[in-house]
Write a structure and sequence with these properties.
Elements lengths: L2 H19 L2 E4 L1 H14 L11 E5 L26 H8 L3 E6 L33 H8 L5 E6 L5 H7 L2 E4 L19 E6 L2 H11 L29 E5 L9 H16 L3 E5 L7 H16 L18 H12 L2 H14 L5 H24 L2 E5 L15 H5 L6 H6 L3 E9 L2 E9 L4 H8 L4
Parallel strand pairs: 2-3, 2-4, 7-8, 7-9
Antiparallel strand pairs: 1-3, 4-6, 5-6, 5-10, 9-11, 10-11
Helix pairs in contact: 1-2, 8-10, 8-11
The structure holds glutamine.
GO molecular function, one term: glutaminyl-tRNA synthase (glutamine-hydrolyzing) activity
GO biological process, one term: translation
Family: Belongs to the amidase family. GatA subfamily.
C-alpha cells in the first residue's frame, strides 16, 4: 500500500464520520495528499515507524499555511506563517498531518462543548461528551480514524478525554516538549503530548516530539532517551503509591473499583502497593483556576483586534476596537477566565489570591516529593466519573471544573502522567492514571505496558 492510498482511506473515513462526530475543525485533504505524494516519491525509511502515518493535531498548535483557530471566533480565519516545533518534528519524520482537531475554545473546558464550531461527540455513545479540551484529538483516535493525535494539557486536557474515550493519553514532564507554536493558555502548566491506542505507540510518538528547543526557554535539555526502553520489563520489587485522597468522596464506585483492580494487577506482577497521602491535593483545583486564569488573562491580551485575528466592525475609537473585538470574539468561558485572572493579579488582591495559589503550588510539589522518596510511581483514577451526557455540566462552571480534580495536581507539579483504559462502567471506558517522577517517562510507560 502506498502512503497516498493510506491517506486517501483515512480522509474518506474522517469525512464520512465528520458530520456526526465533529472531531475536526479542518480536514486538510490537499495538504495531506501533497505530503503523501512527496513521501511516496522519495520512499520510506523503514527504520522510521511513523513515516507515512496520518496523525491529527489539536487546533491550538500552529501549522504553516493551515488554518489554526483554537476553536475560537477570534481566530476563525487565522492562517499561521510558521509551524510549531512539534509540527516541524512530525514533518521531518514524514508523519502526515491529516487535519486540525476540535477542542474547547482556547483549551478552556473539559468537554469540547465551548468550541465555536460546535461540540464533538464521544464515539462510544453519541449522546455523551468526549471530554476536553482535546476532545477532537481523543475522538479521532478512539473512533479508529487515525492511530495517533497530539493534544495539549494544562490541567487534564489530554488525560481526561483519553479516559472518556478509552485510549492512551500522556502529559509529559513540564519542559519535555517545546511549547513553541502552542497557542498559550497557562504557560507554566501547558504541555503538548500524544494520544494513541497503545502505550508503545505513545512512547514512540513522544520520542519524535520531545527535546530541547531554543525558542522555548522552558524546554529542558534533559537527554531524550528511548521512552519505550522499559516497556514490558518486570515490575517485581517496584513500589507503587495509591493516594487515599484519590479514592475519596465524589469518585464514582466503578471508577474506584477499576483502580483497586489495577492495584491488584500490579501486586500480582510483583510490585507492592501502599496507601499514601497527598494532604494538599484538596486545594489543587482552587490554586489551578487562579494560576491558570491569571496566566491566561496575560497571554490572551494579544487578541486586541489590531495585530491579527478577528476585528469588530462599526467602531468609533481605539478603545472601542479593543472592547468590541474582545466582547464579540471570545466566548463566555474564555471571558470568565480573563476576568478571574485579571482580578487575581490586580494590585489589591494579588497577595490574597495569586500569591496564595503559588504557595499552595509549592506545598503540592512537596507532597509529591515526599511520596517519590519511597515510591517508583503513583496510581489513581484519571477522572472522578466516566463520560457524562452532552449539556449535563455546561450550566454550572464549577461542576465542570471538578472534572480535573485528579489531573490538575500533576500540571501544578510539572510531573509526567498517563491515562490508559482500565475498565468500564455501563459500557463507557474508565481511565487509570499513572504518575511518575520528573523526566521519568520510561517508568510511566513501563507501568502502563502492564495493561497491554
Ligand atoms: N478543564 C481544565 C480547564 O478548563 C483543563 C484544561 C486544559 O488542560 N487545557 O482549564
Amino acid at each position: 500500500m502506498t502512503v497516498t492510498e493510506l491517506v486517501k482511506d483515512t480522509l474518506d473515513q474522517i469525512e464520512s464520520d465528520q458530520k456526526e462526530l465533529n472531531a475536526y475543525v479542518t480536514v486538510d485533504r490537499d495538504g495531506a495528499l501533497a505530503q503523501a505524494k512527496a513521501i511516496d516519491e522519495k520512499g520510506i525509511n523503514a527504520d522510521n515507524l511513523w513515516a507515512g502515518i496520518p496523525v491529527a493535531v489539536k487546533d491550538n498548535i500552529v501549522t504553516k499555511d493551515l488554518k489554526t483557530t483554537a476553536a475560537s471566533k477570534m481566530l476563525e480565519n487565522f492562517t499561521p506563517i510558521y509551524d510549531a516545533n512539534v509540527v516541524e518534528k512530525l514533518k521531518a519524520n514524514d508523519v502526515v498531518i491529516i487535519g486540525k482537531t476540535n477542542m474547547d475554545e482556547f483549551a478552556m473546558g473539559g468537554s469540547t462543548e465551548t468550541s465555536f464550531f460546535g461540540a464533538t461527540k464521544n464515539p462510544w455513545d453519541h449522546t455523551k461528551v468526549p471530554g476536553g479540551s482535546s476532545g477532537g484529538s481523543a475522538t479521532t483516535v478512539s473512533a479508529g480514524e487515525v492511530l495517533a493525535s497530539l493534544g495539549s494539557d494544562t490541567g487534564g486536557s489530554i488525560r481526561q478525554p483519553a479516559s472518556f474515550t478509552g485510549i492512551v493519553g500522556v502529559k509529559p514532564t513540564y519542559g519535555r516538549v517545546s511549547r513553541y507554536g502552542l497557542i498559550a493558555f497557562g504557560s507554566s502548566l501547558d504541555q503538548i503530548g500524544p494520544l494513541t491506542r497503545s502505550v508503545r505507540d505513545n512512547a514512540a510518538l513522544l520520542n519524535i516530539i520531545a527535546g530541547k528547543d531554543d525558542r522555548d526557554m522552558t524546554s529542558s535539555d534533559q537527554p531524550v532517551d528511548n521512552f519505550a526502553a522499559k516497556i514490558g520489563q518486570d515490575l517485581t520489587g517496584m513500589k507503587v503509591a495509591l493516594p487515599k485522597e484519590y479514592l475519596g468522596e465524589g469518585i464514582d464506585a466503578d471508577v474506584k473499583k477499576s483502580v483497586l483492580d489495577a492495584a491488584e494487577i500490579f501486586k500480582k506482577l510483583g510490585a507492592t502497593v501502599d496507601e499514601v497521602s497527598l494532604p494538599h491535593s484538596k486545594y489543587g483545583v482552587a490554586a489551578y483556576y487562579i494560576i491558570g486564569s491569571s496566566e491566561a488573562s496575560s497571554n490572551l491580551q494579544r487578541f486586541d483586534g489590531i495585530r491579527y485575528g478577528y476585528r469588530a466592525e462599526d467602531v468609533k475609537s481605539l478603545e472601542d476596537v479593543y472592547v468590541k473585538t474582545r466582547s464579540e470574539g471570545f466566548g463566555d468561558e474564555v471571558k470568565r477566565r480573563i476576568m478571574l485572572g485579571t482580578y487575581s493579579l490586580s494590585a489589591g488582591f494579588f497577595d490574597a489570591y495569586f500569591k496564595k495559589a503559588a504557595q499552595v503550588r509549592t506545598l503540592l510539589i512537596n507532597d509529591f516529593k515526599e511520596i517519590f522518596k519511597e515510591h517508583d510511581f503513583i496510581i489513581g483514577p484519571t477522572a472522578p466519573t466516566p463520560a457524562f451526557k452532552l449539556g449535563a455540566e455546561t450550566a454550572d462552571p464549577t461542576t465542570m471544573y471538578m472534572n480535573d480534580i485528579l489531573t490538575i495536581p500533576l500540571n501544578l507539579a510539572g510531573l509526567p502522567a498517563m491515562s490508559l483504559p482500565a475498565g468500564f462502567s455501563d459500557g463507557m471506558p474508565i481511565g487509570l492514571q499513572i504518575i511518575a517522577k520528573p523526566f521519568d517517562e520510561e517508568t510511566m510507560y513501563q507501568a502502563g505496558s502492564a495493561f497491554e
